[in-house]
Amino acid sequence: MEILSQNIWLVPSFPFISSIILGLVSFFFPSSIKSIRRNCFFISVSFLIIAMFISAYFFWQQITGNPIYQFFWSWIINKNVILEIGYLIDPLTSIMLILVTTIGVIVMIYSDSYMFYDQGYIRFFCYLSLFTASMLGLVISPNLIQIYIFWELVGMCSYLLIGFWFTRPSAANACQKAFITNRIGDFGLLLGILGFYWITGSFDFQELSKRFFELLNDNKINDVFANSCAILLFLGPVAKSAQFPLHVWLPDAMEGPTPISALIHAATMVAAGIFLVARMYPLFEMLPFVMNLMTWVGAITALLGASFALTQRDLKKGLAYSTMSQLGYMMLSLGIGSYKAGLFHLITHAYSKALLFLGSGSVIHSIEPIVGYHPTKSQNMSFMGGLRKYMPITAVTFLFGTLSLCGIPPFACFWSKDEILVDSLFSSPFLGFIAFLTAGLTAFYMFRIYLLTFEGDFRGNLSNEYQFYSFISIWGKPLFGENETKKTTSNYEKINKKILYPKESDKIMLLSLLILTIPTLFIGFIGGPFQEQIGFNLLSNWLHFSINSLNNIHYENFIQFFQDAIPSISIAFLGILIAFYLYGPQISRTNVISKIEKSQFITLDPSSIFVSIYNWSHSRGYIDHFYSLVFLKSLRYFTKSLSFIDQWFVDGFVNGIGILGFFGGEIMKYIEGGRISSYLFFLVSCMLFLFFLYSYI
Question: What sequence ranges are listed for the domain NADH:ubiquinone/plastoquinone oxidoreductase chloroplast chain 5 C-terminal (predicted)?
Fold first, then answer.
């Protein structure tokens, strides 16, 4: 087995090879794509399944207490610089390997059905395999240089997959926005890497932390410089994991195919930032200022993500802001020193959110033939509703994911989120208040999504005639007037005659949803209090990292755990009840008119503070508008000003000299005709002019 341990590089190699094969096939046999797409799918899935089995072996080895493996090969050898490449196998690596490969396999199986009729089917699997290989390479990297290479490859694959349907302007803009925003974070990451190399002389994680600790103890490090390098390094995870203020790319990234949202923007790529912080945790832990910054960035991100998700009408964007909020929880947990809780939530959230995104893809795939294929209709929850009747399996699996994210026991996210909530409260009452408030908002907006999508009556047939359904507000009040209501009533019978209804997705897509339901239900038990009862907590022992960590300080036994969990469960149920009150089956197509007549909806004054809050949330806190004003418009104005100066002053000066030379030459051409009498006349005239000028002066 030692030989297998020395060949962990095979894990990223298999999906990389499949990506090359698919790329060559699509390049050399473009006319045969339709006939060989199944073969390409088989190659992609088979190679990734092999990588998954190898990952599972290392996962088991780490569980059973095998030592950490670390191997290096010399890459660049110089008198002053030695760069090495290799791999590192430890508990954190094994977690991420099993996470990426299992979710990757499920998403690939799901994508075969979801993308089957797409013209870019093989290109999609080529990009998907390349991304998986890049992510696996990032996970096993033993030093900062190697991790930065794969970090950039992951960003490139994200750019390609977000802009997969690049002929759609919104998708093209979204991939550019994601690419540029991540370049800001990556530039900071590169500067931070170089800064720490300048301090310690090493890129290796373990050696870097060891040398930094020694230098810090001997007071040989400038604190300001060290903190600056750490902040720059932290800027990379801030962008990659969609933390405030570099979070703006994530909602727009939903322009990519839904399976990509499940794999990249829920379970793997956005988790890369959390992974890097966890990998560099021994170093960050020595810098209290950076840990504080990490804590508050996470807290603000969690609260903002939940606040923006409250009013989203786009199903996938609502889930995207939910992802942003949960990533904020993870960053908050790492910042306060709760290492185990943060990584535990990374695991539970990955499976739950992948289930939710694939469930949303099942919904979108089903209603597209009815409402249209543009995202403004097929992803608009206002045109959904009542889907539980037609898609029962999708509805049940989506409900399981919703309950998990809300923190309802015994679903997976309950066990991890509760630890973060209580650890936050122990760390700071104000942080605890933010964390608990975010938990309540999470329960509200997740059940808002579920109720608008699956409960009530189906509204998809009203997508053209009933435009007012695009304006169901957060308060459950359709924003239309009396005239529109009368018009709706008169047209209602006409629409009923040509009504269409969605159908349940095919067996392959449903199989993927059912498989993801299993970890959504049970994976939380690996870190729950049940193992405390038998004196052994797998996750705590496995991920025990720091004696200063807050791991398990808030409960001693099963009963104590649930006593501490009562506040979080209570606030989650409060959010669910409010969502039921505002978005229950009362929002339906058949009885909407009678409900308005009976004044069942809340009436709000346009000048009310609630309307202002709604507008703020729906406009994403005006952050995108602010960035557009400060960076885009101001930069365009600045460049136009520079262009004007360059055209009329710099070029004008040079061109002016040229024009003067040209006209001077033209004048001299007529003066210098070769006649001596003309030269004498010109000479005498100039002398007389100078004489008179001298006389007057």
Answer: 489-646
- Looking at per-residue pLDDT, the higher value among 4 and 479 belongs to 4
**Percent of residues, the chain, with pLDDT higher than 70:** 84
Mind listing the pLDDT tens digit for each residue in 116-126?
A: 888 888 999 99
The partner residues of 63 in beta bridges, in order of sequence, read none
Identity (one letter) of the amino acid at 295? T
Residue 591 has what DSSP assignment?
S
Cβ neighbours around 481 below 10 Å, total: 8
- Residue pair 413/349 in contact by the 8 Å Cβ criterion: yes
* 362 and 391 Cβ atoms separated by less than 8 Å: yes
Given a cut of 80, whether residue 472 has pLDDT beyond it is: no
Burial class (CB in 10 A: 0-12, 13-18, 19+), 677: exposed
* Cα 525 to Cα 602: distance, rounded to the nearest angstrom: 42
HEC string for 291-335 = HHHHHHHHHHHHHHHHHHHCCCCEHHHHHHHHHHHHHHHHHHHHH
Q: How far apart are CA 661 and CA 10, in angstroms?
A: 70
* CA 639 – CA 103 distance, rounded (Å): 45
Token readout for 578 is 């409010």
User: Closest Cα to residue 444, out of 407, 470, 414?
Assistant: 407
Q: What is the DSSP string of 61-102?
A: HHHTTPPPEEEEEEEEE-SS-EEEEEEEESHHHHHHHHHHHH
pLDDT digits (tens, 9 = 90+) for 324-368: 999 999 999 999 988 888 999 999 999 999 999 999 999 999 998
Res 119: pLDDT: 84
206 three-class SS: helix
Q: Is 486 helix (H, G, I), strand (E, B) or coil?
A: helix
CB 159 within 8 A of CB 189: no
Residue reference for tokens 């002389």: 201
**603: which DSSP letter?**
P
**Helix, strand or coil, per DSSP, at residue 399:** helix
- Identity at 478, one-letter amino acid code: P
pLDDT of residue 466: 44
Three-state secondary structure string covering 670-691: HHCCCCHHHHHHHHHHHHHHHH
| Amino acid in the structure at residue 462 | L
* CA 458/CA 382 separation, integer angstroms: 10
The DSSP symbol for 462 reads: G
pLDDT in tens, 482-522: 454 444 444 544 544 456 788 898 899 999 999 999 999 98
Question: Sorting pLDDT into bands at 50, 70 and 90, what band is 528?
Answer: low
Question: What pLDDT does residue 411 have?
Answer: 92
Q: Let me know if 283 is exposed, middle or buried by CB neighbors in 10 A (0-12, 13-18, 19+).
A: buried
Tokens 């229950």 belong to which residue? 584
Q: Taking each helix axis from N to C terminus, what angle separates 315-335 and 412-427, rounded to the nearest 10 degrees? A: 50
Dihedral over alpha carbons 532, 538, 541, 543 (to 10 degrees): -130
Q: How far is CA 284 from CA 3, 78, 550, 650, in A?
A: 34, 30, 16, 49
Query: Contact at 8 Å (CB) between 538 and 63?
Result: yes
